Amino acid sequence: MHRFLSAxxxxxxxxxxxxxxxxxxxxxxxxxxxxxxxRVEALFLELERDPAQDLNSVVVSRRGCIVAVRYLNGAGxxxxxxxxxxxxxxxxxxxxxxxxxxxxxxxDAPIARYLPPGMPPAQQRIRVVDLLTMxxxxxSDDEDPDSAGNEDQLDxxxxxxxxxxxxxxxxxxxxxxxxxxxxxxxxxxxxxxASGMTLHAFARKHLFEPLGIxxxxxxxxxxxxxxxxxxxxxxxRDMVRIGQLxxxxxxxxxxxxxxRAWSAQALFPSVAIADQDPYADGYGYMWYSKTWPREGGPxxxxxxxxxxxxxxxLVPALDLIVAITSSAYGQxxxxxxxxxxxxxxxxxxxxxxxxxxxxxx
Length: 361
Prior knowledge:
CATH superfamily of the largest domain: DD-peptidase/beta-lactamase superfamily
Helix content: 25-40%
Distance between the termini: 39 Å
Structural class: alpha+beta
Strand order of the largest sheet: 2-1-13-12-11-10-9-8
Radius of gyration: 20 Å
Largest sheet: 8 strands, antiparallel
């Protein structure tokens, strides 16, 4: 086997049992069928020479097998990375699990039903789906420094739920997409109050443990609030496990964690955001989407995204996951670099005509 393939197989062996992957020979065949190896090796060599030195890892899985791995700048297989706002996609997943368990009635339920008393009447019109699609209508625009409920204002508050209740409405719920960490905080708060558990404890029991994820850290707010808006620390390999849950339709190890229909809807780009986000054209339940024109036809990519370029890219049509951890916080090149890594990997995949297509609607 090529020297490069031998190296990446080492990375696969350590996670084969947890990911319920095929036998070694099947994964080796998947590796051989997945890439133009020379292109991937050239990409990884370029990344090693990146002068910014703030890219930490690239882990690629195809057909349930880890097929390429590169750790950089001191990171390793067990390194935990603050995935920043990519944690919002994890929070949405926890909402889906709570719905599956009957703790939350569904996406059309009012959020006030699952939060403590004191919510003003105008906010009581907000539904679960409005939080998940960032269309709550609150004056909580993270891109606007003058917004009453933006992320900086939330972080500086001594108690987050009373702060959230004091944020005025700006639009009707469900009307307009606005990127808002406050809505993700409220989504996590719903899970906490509906379950009677902290957000991290609920995640450990009902998401991480079933996926075989054992080492995580999650920041808490000033009063012990769950930080549904981000700041989960997790390894790149465990990010792949979260992505695999969605590619497997909400099932892991024979256990159904998410309803299949809900997991599909979570990824579906139900809200158009191309005019607001240069890296995405659609938004689902705190998952982004973008359809890329490729030589053999368009390919739709879904992804969780964090400050600095941390990503969980999902390409269902190719049975592909790309997890990237990056510490280029506040640097625009971090997002661009991760996008280019994805596109270079797509270029390297040897695609059959039947595979190279967008997701079905």
